[in-house]
Amino acid sequence: MDRIVDFSPKGWQVDCVLDIRGSVRLAAAWGIAAALLLLAAFPGRAADRGELVFGMSAPFTGANGELGIEFYRGFMAYIDFINVEGGVEGWKLRVTPANDGYNPGPCFCNTAEFIEGNVFALFSYVGTPNTAAVLPLLEKFESRDMFLLFPFTGAMPMRSPPYGKYVYNLRASYFDETRAMVDRFTDLGLTRISVFYQNDAYGRTGWDGVRRALRTHGLEMASEAAYQRGASFSEDFGEQARLILDGDPDVIVCIGTYASQGAFVRDARNAGFDGLIAGVSFADSDKMLDLLDTEERRTGCNYTRNLFNTQVVPCYERTDLPGAALYRKLMDRYKGLPMTPGDGYSRRRFSYVSFEGFLNGMLLVEVVRRMADDPRRERIPEVMASIRGYDLGIGVKANFGNGRHQGLDRVYFTTAEDGHFAPVRDWERWRK
Fold this sequence. Notes:
Layout: E1 5-6, E2 14-18, E3 24-28, E4 35-37, E5 51-58, H1 65-84, E6 92-99, H2 104-116, E7 121-123, H3 128-132, H4 135-140, E8 148-149, E9 167-168, H5 174-187, E10 193-198, H6 201-216, E11 224-227, H7 238-245, E12 251-255, H8 258-270, E13 276-279, H9 285-299, E14 307-311, H10 322-333, H11 352-370, H12 380-385, E15 390-391, E16 397-398, E17 412-417, E18 420-423
Parallel strand pairs: 1-6, 5-6, 5-7, 7-8, 8-9, 10-11, 10-12, 12-13, 13-14
Antiparallel strand pairs: 2-3, 3-4, 14-17, 15-16, 17-18
């Protein structure tokens, strides 16, 4: 297994403060004396020729731990394959995973250690609230040309000033996803749309995306309710369900994680709502469906009817797509994990989350290939700008030219059927 840096033991409280000299002070509430990380100037060239090291901060434990684990497994399935074949024109790629538990404080500290350790770039961070917390750090150390490549978040802080210039995104944004949802639902006559959202940067971005999309149709939200980050599937969302149903919605859009969204679906169904409940890609629809299937078997209630989810990659069962076929082949070979998983985790053969990670790995390899003659961090913007019409084997091409910091815009519609989320084939069943 790869080494993991973990700043989030059970019961963590971490305070990371940048002082005026640019150092990072780490004060840990569990009694360890404050440590000082001095971020001294480092050259942009890789420290050891023959290997390029990237830093990843993500949740590998807690209520959202499967997101980080499966995302990591996706890109490592491809990177491991490339390394075994000799690397990228002789360069081996290594990703150092660090657990942040989906919390901003540990993510900030992990990032400080990555910068101090002179990683080549930050890569495949998972989650909005934690990733957004490190953006000021990238701005502060702009002279070191430290970029964040392909995070697993569709939030706007990673795509807009002042921090968007330090981040390159492969996936579509939450604005793209929520606009596509609202346009399709209103076309079906489903105009009363409510929102259940996580009360942080992630949830508010999705909430704002729905609000903006509705206003282009002259509409407002029918109702809304929020919850605090970190909720598990055992959480009682009966009160939030009541608030939402008071608005008599046609559709409920959820901006949450697999545990919280699954818990809300359960409680909304128990409260009598039989309409469409929709989620965005970050929810990890595969894991959410597992939780609801288990609850169905326990209670005998039907929780998985009329479930809808947007995705930012095509269905991984599309073996007619070369990228999906290669993903399935390499995922069956790869057995690695970023760390010893906690109770309740079981390795998932395929998922939308790991497929997105796999495409990240493919693109990272291409970035390194285009600078393999002289890999330096300051070359990353020029290399990214050169990626135009790059074929990932998924039917659409990635474009970063003309100042773009988001390579893909495509949104895919899926619905729960036969134990998995499959592409929507029949929209008329939801027409009002």
